[in-house]
Amino acid sequence: MISKNKKEKKKSGSKANDLAASVYLDLLKEKNRSRNTVRIGAIGMASVVGMVLLYSFGLIKNASNVIYGISQEGTVYKMEKKEPALAVLEDAKFHIGYWFGTYYTFDYSNMNDKRIQGLQLIDDEDGSNLEKKWADWYSTIATQSLSQETIFNVGSFQFKQVSSKTYQMACTAKMELFNSGFKNVYELTVTSYLTRVERDYPHNPHGFTFFDYRDNLELKEQNVNIKN
Q: How far is CA 84 from CA 67, 79, 80, 121, in A?
């Protein structure tokens, strides 16, 4: 027979156990709520990060579709990337225009700087041979304080791929040599190979180098009065 004290102790112990179980259940619920909150927060954060990455990818993709070049006049222009063959052809045209605008366009005061700028677009050996060929011409410009301008005739441009990174080209340009109020007009004919190289801003912005370069100058008009 269980005594009264034992019965009271048993009841007290039962109540204590019930209270402990209740507290434990409350703790479990709170823990689950915390886990769910963390899980929801993590999902939300992942969504935000995903949206940011997606937006960033869009910006990078858009940026990667844009390339920049330098025109014959020295201004920076933006071009959308096109099909490889069209992009190469366009780069080649701008490269040649830039070449004529540097190596063959100057006055006596900036002639040396422009030539040095142009020589970065051509193979070293070809550039050295070109300098020797034009040495007397440059001397005349310097001593007589002359100037000249050369404009690429885009319509004359011929361009053919001969290997994966090598192209053959030919074209003409109009060269005008100015002396006081008069000018001589020449046709400059160029044949060369172009090899594809890495773009190097601002030295070689279009990614080509001339080699096996040949040019020929033919007088078309002499002592043309500029004022007329």
A: 13, 13, 12, 21
Q: CA 13 to CA 7: how far, in whole Å?
A: 10
CA angle 67, 68, 70 (to 5 degrees): 150
Q: Where are the beta strands (DSSP E) in the chain?
A: 66-70, 76-80, 106-107, 147-161, 166-179, 182-196, 208-225
Residue ranges with strand state E in 119-165? 147-161
Task: Output the CA angle 91-94-96, nearest 5 degrees.
Answer: 110
- Residue 95: CB atoms within 10 A of its CB come to 22
Matching residue, tokens 């005008």: 176
Reported as a single tens digit per residue, the pLDDT across 112-167 is 999 999 999 999 999 999 999 999 999 999 999 999 999 999 999 999 999 999 99
Assigned token pair, 135: 């040495």
Looking at beta carbons, which pairs linking 8-14 to residues 24 or more positions away fall under 8 Å?
none
Peptide bond into 202 cis (omega under 30): yes
- What order do you get walking across the sheet with 166-179 strand by strand? 106-107, 147-161, 166-179, 182-196, 208-225
Asked whether the whole model's pTM tops 0.85, one would answer no
Residues 51 and 147: their CA atoms lie apart, in Å, by 58
